[in-house]
Amino acid sequence: MKAALLLYGVVGIAAYYLQERLIFHPTAVAPQVAYDFRGQPHTELNIAYDNETNLNIIEFQAIDRPKDSLAKGVVLYFHGNSHNVEWYGRHTTDFTTLGYEVWMIDYPGYGKSTGVRSEQKLYDYALVFYKLARSRWKPSQIILYGRSLGTGIAAELGSIRDCRRLILESPYYSMTSLGGYYLPIYPWSRLLHYHFPTYTYLPAVTAPVTIFHGSRDLTVPYSNAARLKPLLKNGDEFITVHGAGHDDLHAWPLFKQKLDSVLAL
User: Fold this and answer.
1) What residue ranges do the domains of the chain occupy?
2) Confidence tier at 187 by pLDDT (50, 70, 90)
């Protein structure tokens, strides 16, 4: 019994003090390093948020539109918990080949972005990102896209700002509910500094919502994401990609077909 209690305490303490390392897996890049986006036309932008925070943003240009015409709109892309924009840049052609620009932001510690992370700060950075887009685009031209970790950030932004559509790829009900799924014996609401309660944000999103999730997702279990279904309003859609996991949704024809149809609306 004492050994079990000791193990419980050690694991709980480790989860509390090491949660930054457990949740975030960034790849930092020196400011002078040039990204390789395989020939995709792009512009790199750095925003000085404060004395210690630089937000690095990559703006990918639409590559399938008539010459000298404007893009259809812009996709603000909030990526997952690993790597940096160079890793996720390979997915931007899902949008740029349909005439959309894609703007992708790195969180502090990722790529060339610097500064301090916290849940509130990530929301604050997302709002700055949105305001930058609003200087060039109308809300009806802005699509918010979140992947995995980024779904909670995109959903929060969509709950406080207007957009054309909110698209979530492999979302979670909340970060605390994920902890409860894997280790239900711990009080995750008190242990975690990051809660990302997607379930509280979706009801406040007035724009159409599209959710993609793989039935064999082993990172964010399908059952966890499925808890979001009752929160969707009329016109929203939860698309189950049967057989897909967490990182391979883009390889499934259903994902591409549905995404193309949503972007055509």
Assistant:
1) 2-264
2) confident
pLDDT tens digits along 97-142 = 999 999 999 999 999 999 999 999 999 999 999 999 999 999 999 9
What's the chain's average pLDDT? 93
238 phi and psi, to 5 degrees? -110, 110
The pTM of the whole model exceeds 0.90: yes
CATH superfamily of 2-264: Alpha/Beta hydrolase fold, catalytic domain (3.40.50.1820)
